[in-house]
Amino acid sequence: MQKKISLFTVINTVFLASLALLCLLPIIHIVAISFSDQAAVSANQIGLIPKGFTLASYKMVAKRGAFWTAFGISVKRVIFGVLINTVITVLMAYPLSKSEKEFPARKLYVWILIFVMIFDGGLVPNYLLVNKLGLFDTIWALVLPTAVPIYNIILTMNFMKQLPSTIEEAAMVDGAGYFARFIHLIVPLSKPVIATITLFSFVGHWNSWFDGKIYNNQTSNYPLQTYLQNIISSSDMTNAAEAMENALSNVKTLQAAQLALTLLPILLIYPFLQKYFVKGITVGAVKG
User: Fold this and answer.
1) Would you state the pLDDT for residue 128?
2) Is the pLDDT of residue 2 over 60?
3) Coarse DSSP helix, strand, coil percentages of the chain, rounded to the nearest 5 percent
4) Same domain for 88 and 180?
5) Whether residues 75 and 10 fall in one domain
6) How far, rounded to the nearest angstrom, does the alpha carbon of residue 137 sit from its chain's CA centroid?
7) Could you give the number of structural domains in the chain?
8) Which domain holds residue 39?
9) For every residue of 32-86, which 3-state class applies, written as one string?
């Protein structure tokens, strides 16, 4: 028996496919520019397919020490940032997922989290605090101010609340304490939401550029996105050698090549976490 497809399903599918295409086309265009020669780019002839295929821009990027330095800083930021975010999120979410009988102050802490999520201290207090702590031009200025991701905590807390309480009760009968139950039961069962918050933290740290701009006095300490924003906002060549190489690859193709390389880590990691993503975000967002 053939399954009937509703009008809503058709409209929804077309709408979401169109939205996905709108997000994908700019990326394809950037990649096409990065593989095109200078003449085609200068004449604005590039659409979704490269013209005058060349790897000159990527060869030039490979010679740029500043690009790879910034890339390394971003990698370090992601490693430390994601690890800190995930550990703090899971450790805070577990006790907050308990009932008020087990954790009487639960509601108070939840309201505190919601309050500080809505009413942020602001840019100036954050800047003064980071400066006072002497964190300028260090990796910690990029990691510690966002160490407690409140939205991720609430998402993880809601996910843990929907886990069957009988599992923990059985382990408690066997003599397992809170920590043993957390490590051996809750964490393995929470893989979907942990994968989801890991992806959120990864994308957040990898794409962030503004904090790198305000918390670093030296451009050599810029993370990758701040470095890219810096060179995109200024198309001036920095030295005569770059001006000579510009005959093979102009500024626009060079910028496109660097942007394309920046997208690679997310494109490579997302497929491995995607199978957990939908379950983690839906289950974690449903139960309050």
Assistant:
1) 92
2) no
3) 75, 0, 25
4) yes
5) no
6) 21
7) 2
8) 1-54
9) HHHCCCHHHHHCCCCCCCCCCCCCHHHHHHHHCHHHHHHHHHHHHHHHHHHHHHH
Question: pLDDT (tens digit, 9 = 90+) per residue, 5-47?
Answer: 788 888 888 998 999 888 888 888 888 888 887 777 777 777 7
A 10 A CB-CB count for 2 gives: 4
Tell me, what's the pLDDT at 249?
Answer: 47
Which of these, 205, 204, 194, lies nearest to 78 by C-alpha position? 205
Of 38, 54, 70, the residue at which a domain comes to its end is 54
The per-residue pLDDT for 279 is 58
Joined together, the tokens standing for residue 205 give 């740290």
Same domain, 106 and 83: yes
Q: pTM score, two decimals?
A: 0.79
Neighbouring residues of 88: CB distance < 8 A, sequence distance ≥ 6: 147, 148, 149, 153
Residues 6+ apart with CB under 8 A from 80: 139, 143
Question: Residue 157: which CATH number?
Answer: 1.10.3720.10
Q: Mean per-residue pLDDT for 226-233?
A: 81
116 and 241 together in one domain: yes
